[in-house]
Amino acid sequence: VTTGGRGGTPQESCKDLLMIRIRPGRGIAGNTGRVLTSRPMIQRPARTSTTLPENTPARTPRTGGSALRTTRSARSHGRDEAVSRILDVCASRPGVPLVVVTGPSGSGRSSVLAQVGEKVAEQGICSVDVPLSRGRCELADVAARLADALGAPAPRDEAALHRMLAALARRPGRFVVFVDDAHRIAHAALVSLAALARTLSGSGVTVVCSFRTPTAHPSAELAALRAAGLVHEERLRPLSRSTVEQMLVDLLRAKPAPGLATALRDSSRWNPAVVAAAVEGWQRAGLLRTVDRHAHLVERDAPRLPATHRVFAVIRELGPEHWDV
Question: CA-based angle 218:223:227, to the nearest 5?
């Protein structure tokens, strides 16, 4: 952008221009970057009634949710193989409409969904997030949030929800629906949703959801879907020693001394969220020292974290009787 050189300022010359950022990975063709266009060229589209979109719906941002939720750019240590397997289902296995990711609190379920979201965007696969509120979500709540993510009217009953899913299944191309923290869905609603999952069989739609374990998900319905080959399960297990050591290198910018790795093995059970919280707590307490590019724990004292730290959020969700203990 130039000012013309005749006494005009950059602000005056650019005041009639708008800057528009084009985001990649949502099925949008074309170059990525910033486009300057004059204000009169932008036309407001005519308002139309909201229906289930045939075109690419915009991916909604993740809102609320797990206390251990990470950003899309966050790295999920030791979960590359799980991400690769889930991506394969989303991209090339239309006969498997459901992916279930399970693991205890802090095991990285949200990070895995975030990484899969990045990968499907890189492949040009359209996707949406269905955020769930805290507390128990009934079927009507889940249906309304799914409809909102798709840009469709909220279904009034289960039959309308079935028709909405059937319309989604007829959509051409691959499509992924992410549902994090699905353990918040009420049991009766999960039973209904498990039955509706058969509607998506053979389509290009994959629903990727995460459950915290232990959880009361409908095991009988899930077993029936598994027997029919309609579900792919990923159980996130404790991290290996080498993965935790690499995680410490990334957090501390130094190799962990043997004593530090042992302390974390004994206290965290190789849970990635607990490992990160322990390092943060030791740093707060001034108990970590770096000598010759090796991080040492100078005292075997408990990490110091505020009661409001996100790692305790799951306990707070259980209620005051658990939190007091």
Answer: 155
